[in-house]
Amino acid sequence: MQQQDNDEPLVTIRDLTFRRDGRVIFDGVDLDIRRGRVTAIMGPSGTGKTTLLRLVGGQLRPERGSIRFEGEEITRAGRGRLYELRKRMGMLFQNGALLTDMNVYDNVAFPLREHTDLPEAMIRDLVLMKLEAVGLRGARRLMPSQLSGGMARRVALARAIALDPDMILYDEPFTGQDPISMGVLVRLIRTLNESLGLTSVLVSHDIAEAASISDYIYLLAGGRVVAQGTADELYESDSQWAQQFLKGLPDGPVPFHYPAPDYAGDLLAGGEGREAAA
Amino acid sequence: MLDLLQNLGRRGLGVFERLGRASLLLVQILSGLHTLLPRPRLVIQQVFSVGVLSLVIIVVSGTFVGMVLGLQGYNTLVDFGAEESLGVVVALSLVRELGPVVTALLFAGRAGSALTAEIGLMKATEQLSALEMMAVDPVRRVLAPRFIAGFISMPLLAAIFSAVGVLGGYFVGVGLLGVDEGAYWSQMQDKVDLYDDVYNGVIKSLAFGWVATWIAVFEGHDAVPTSEGVSRATTRTVVYTSLAVLGLDFVLTALMFGD
C-alpha cells in the first residue's frame, strides 16, 4: 500500500473546492505531496490538472478547502508571503514560457538576477551548471525562437531549478514531444529529483511516461480523486476509472458522448442549420 | 425591447467594469514605480523601443505636415498680403495642436499597438504567469517600465514633430514660395509664447502620453489570451487611444485657450 514515510508531506491539500464560470472544477479533493517523491496527477483533459498546479502556486484562490506548503496555508497567504513561498517552488509550463526577448543564458539567469545580489561571475557559473544539468550549455547564445519544443522545455527546467527550489511543478511536460525528447525529459525529471533532492509534482496524461517515473499517482476525474496508488497498484485496481484511463478505453465512467438531448428527437427538430444558412 | 434594454445595461456595466479594472491596474503600476529607480536600464530599453523606434514615422510625418501647413497657410495669407506671418501660423498650429495630437495618433498606431500585442502575447504564451511563479511581479517588471517609457517619449516625440514641421514649413514657404526668411523666423519668435503655447503643448502631450500608454498597457494585460483576443485588443488600443486623444484634446484646449 502507501509508501512508508513518516515525514510530514510537503504539500497537503484538503477538501479543495474550486469553481470557474459556474462549473465545478474540484469538489472536495484531498491529496498529499510527499517530500523527495515524484507524484503524478493524471486524468482526462479538462479535469483541471493545470488548475490544480495554479492553486498550489497561489495564482488562483479556491472557494473552499486548504492547501498547505510546509504547514503554511497558501490560500490565505498575503501577496508578499506568497512571493516568498514561490521562490521555493519552480514551475515548468507546458510550452516552457521562456521570455522571448532574451537568450537562453539570460533566461536562466533571470531569477538569479531578480532575486539575488550575486556578482555576475557567480551567476555565470550557476547558469552554466544549470544548463549543463539539462545538457544545453552549448545552446546558451540561442534565442527561444531558435529552440525546438523539447529544448525550450529543458531551458525552462534549468530556469525553474535556478533558485534551487524545494519543489517543481511540471505542467504536461511530455505533450507534443517526439520520442527522443520525451525520453530525455522523463530521465531528466527523475534524475533531477534524485540529485537535487527535489519534490516533483507531475501533471500529465501520458500514462506510460508518467507512470514510469512516479512514486505515487493520483487519478482525477469529475472534480474528485477517483483512484490513487503506485503505478502497479493502479494497474491492478478494480476501479473503473483507473481501468478506463490506463487502458485508453473510449467509453466508461468518462462517457464518449458530450451530454446531449435525445438523438432521434434532435435529428427531427432541425433549426440550427437553417439559422446558420440565413 | 426588453432584450435591447438588457443588452444595453450589460454593455454599460461592462464598460464600467473595464474602467474599474484599468484604474486598478494604473494604481498597481504607479505603486510599483519606485522599484524601477535602482534599475533605470529597464526603462531605457523601453524608451528605445517605444520612442527611438518611432522616430522615423514621426520625422517623416512632421516634415510633410509642416510642408502642407506652409503651402496652405501661404495660399490663404497671400490674399491679405500677410504671407510674412507664415512662420507664426505654422509654428502655432504645430506647437499648440498638430504636434501633440498627430504625434499621439501616430504613437497609438506605431508604439501603442506594439505594446498591446507584446503584452497580450506574453500573456497568451504564459510568460506573465511564469514571471508570477518566479516570484516576479509582471506589473512591476513588464508593465511599469513600458508605461513610464511611453510617458517620457511622447512629449519628446511631439517636440521633434513640431521642430521638423517648422523646418518643413520653412522649406516650402521660404525655399519654394519666396517668403522672406527673416520675417518667417522673427515673427515666429515674436508671437509664439513660451508659457501660453509651448508649455501648454507639452502639457497636452504629457496627458496624451499618459492616456495612450495606459490604454495600450491595459488592453494588453486584459487581452483574452488567444490570437483572436490579442488581435482584438490591438485594434481596441488604436481605436480607443485615437478617440481618447481627440476628446481629451478638445477638453484641454477649452481649458487652456477657452477664455
Alpha-carbon Rg of chain B, integer = 21 Å
Task: Count helical runs of chain B.
Answer: 9
Q: Give me the secondary-structure category of chain B.
A: mainly alpha
Oligomer state equals: heterodimer
- Counting DSSP H or I runs of 4 or more residues, the number of helices of chain A is 11
Q: Low-confidence parts of chain A, pLDDT < 50 over ≥5 residues?
A: 1-6
Number of strands of chain B: 0
Output the helix-strand order of chain B: HHHHHHHHH
Categorize the overall geometry of chain A. Answer: globular
Rounded average pLDDT of chain A: 86
Structure description:
The complex is a heterodimer of chains A (278) and B (259). Chain A is α/β, with parallel strands linked by helices and 278 residues long. Chain A has 11 helices and 10 strands. Chain A has helices spanning 49-56, 79-86, 104-115, 120-133, 149-160, 179-195, 207-213, 231-236, 240-247, 263-269, 272-277; strands at 11-20, 23-33, 38-42, 64-69, 72-73, 89-92, 167-171, 199-204, 216-221, 224-229. In chain A, the strands form 2 sheets. In chain A, strands 6-7-8-3-9-10 form a 6-stranded mixed beta sheet, with helices on both faces. In chain A, strands 2-1-4-5 form a 4-stranded antiparallel beta sheet, with helices on one face. In chain A, strand 7 (167-171), helix 6 (179-195) and strand 8 form a beta-alpha-beta unit. The relative contact order of chain A is 0.16. The model of chain A is unreliable at 1-6 (pLDDT under 50). The model of chain B has no long low-confidence stretch (mean pLDDT 93). Chain B starts with a helix and ends with a helix. With 259 residues, chain B is mainly α. The longest helix of chain B has 39 residues, at 86-124. Chain B has helices at residues 2-31, 40-51, 55-79, 86-124, 127-133, 138-176, 181-191, 194-222, 227-257. The chains are: A alpha/beta (278), B mainly alpha (259). The interface between A and B is medium-sized, with 24 and 14 residues.
